[in-house]
Amino acid sequence: MSKKIVEVRDLKVHFTSHKGFLWNKTVDVVKAVDGVSFTLEEGETLGLVGESGCGKSTTARAVMRLIPPTQGEILMDGNDLMALDAETLRRARRDFQIIFQDPYASLNPRMTVGQIIAEPLVNFEIGTSKEQREKVLTLLDEVGLPGSAINRYPHEFSGGQRQRISIARALAPQPRLVICDEPVSALDVSVQAQILTLLQELQSRYKLTYLFISHDLAVVRYISDRVAVMHRGKIVEMADSLSIFKEAKHEYTQLLLDAVPHPDPTRRRR
């Protein structure tokens, strides 16, 4: 029986706008995430899919506690991340890391690749300086980059190579959960396939659990064990990947699937 790693219960993230002399009058409330619940089991990939603006990335950032949730519970191994103080939460973050969408914006241009990948090791005080350097070299090799990259800067690499650096950084503290926030959407199609294959190989090697966020149904179908379809801040359908793409139940899921272009000039679409 698989072990439950993460359980999210009734997660809500609401943003309010104010006006008035002291900004004390609420004008509007945007319900970016409105009652989302899901679980993640060890070694599985849950694909979170939906159109832009539906709340996917906000959900990811709330689970990471990068933005404060308005309501709900986020349990990791039974411990509520919402109840942790700042220092305890900082230490807990060793177990969950994130790969951001933009490989150009997510890497510090003033740091070398070695410093970027070693930063989590330094932050969590993992190993000596020598051990940290050896770990960085090992990670570079595992993501398909040469050891000579350790002293180079992000601007010297292509988009796909930068995303490999981001993956190496995320894996440095040996997390159990990795949130992939559209990690291939900014890359060429051929490079996307390479990165997806790399993520699957690393998952198998380290028994990683992925929350994979994307608006690309083909990518989600390829990598996910289960799929959750999100619409206007809510999960409207969740099932295993095969069932979702073969026999979608919810009307919105059917519309998403129908919107995918098919190479058949005689086929009519709604």
Provide the fold topology.
Layout: E1 4-19, E2 25-41, E3 45-49, H1 56-63, E4 71-76, E5 79-80, H2 86-92, E6 96-99, H3 113-123, H4 129-142, H5 159-171, E7 177-181, H6 189-206, E8 209-214, H7 217-223, E9 226-231, E10 234-240, H8 241-246, H9 251-258
Parallel strand pairs: 3-8, 3-9, 6-7, 7-8
Antiparallel strand pairs: 1-2, 1-4, 4-5, 9-10
Helix pairs in contact: 3-4, 3-5, 4-5, 5-6
Notes on the structure:
With 270 residues, the protein is of the alpha/beta class. It has a single domain, classed as P-loop containing nucleotide triphosphate hydrolases (Rossmann fold, 3-Layer(aba) Sandwich). It is 34% helix and 27% strand. It has 9 helices and 10 strands. It has a 6-stranded mixed beta sheet with strand order 6-7-8-3-9-10, sandwiched between helices. The chain has a 4-stranded antiparallel beta sheet with strand order 2-1-4-5. Strand 1 and strand 2 (25-41) form a beta hairpin. Helix 4 (129-142) crosses helix 5 (159-171). It is globular and about 55 Å long. The model has no long low-confidence stretch (mean pLDDT 91).
End-to-end separation: 42 Å
Mean pLDDT comes to 91
Q: Report the CATH topology name.
A: Rossmann fold
Question: What multimeric state do the chains show?
Answer: single chain
Strand share of the residues? 25-35%
**Count of β-strands:** 10
What are the low-pLDDT stretches, counting only 5+ consecutive residues below 50?
none
Radius of gyration using CA atoms only: 20 Å
| Helicity, as a percent range | 25-40%
Helix count, DSSP H or I runs of 4 or more residues? 9
Principal-axes shape call? globular
